[in-house]
Design brief:
Blueprint lengths: L8 H4 L5 H18 L6 H14 L7 H12 L3 H21 L7 E6 L4 E6 L17 E2 L15
Antiparallel strand pairs: 1-2, 1-3
Helix pairs in contact: 2-3, 3-4, 4-5
């Protein structure tokens, strides 16, 4: 795995603590794997998410997210992993919304078919709930607030 120095671009969004960013970076690895219909590396990343949440001095994310990370680390099959990931995503997104944290490069996406949101990097939808069967299903939801009506077009 390539090492990125702490002085990378992410370090400049002072809004999130180092541990919160680590949790999100590891979370993105899980999202990427699930979008590829794979659970490879998910256990390791999920463990790292839970650990980072626990270490975070700002307590950016709730204890529930830590348990969801731990549960995801024990999950072996794709279907269950996606269910747990859905709950983990909601916990992380709600916490970021509530604290009005700048999510920087992490964009919030929503899929009306899955009825669920997730965070990802980049504008190209990579749907972790459907993977290759409907990889591009969903849209980027910028900003805070509810993602309920996002498939109804922009206002």
């Amino acid at each position: 795995s390539r090492q990125t120095s702490p002085t990378s671009a992410a370090a400049e969004q002072g809004a999130l603590s180092k541990d919160a960013r680590t949790a999100l970076d590891e979370y993105i690895k899980i999202q990427t794997a699930l979008a590829q219909d794979s659970v490879r590396g998910v256990a390791e990343s999920a463990t790292a998410v839970a650990k980072a949440i626990q270490l975070d001095p700002d307590k950016t994310f709730p204890a529930a997210a830590k348990s969801q990370g731990e549960l995801l680390a024990k999950t072996k099959d794709l279907k269950t992993a996606r269910e747990v990931f859905k709950r983990l995503s909601n916990s992380l997104i709600e916490a970021l919304d509530k604290q009005k944290k700048s999510t920087g490069q992490y964009l919030k996406a929503f899929c009306p078919m899955a009825g669920a949101s997730w965070l990802q990097v980049g504008q190209t939808i990579q749907n972790p709930y459907f993977g290759k069967s409907m990889l591009r299903c969903g849209n980027i939801v910028q900003g805070k607030g509810s993602a309920k009506s996002d498939h109804s077009g922009h206002h």
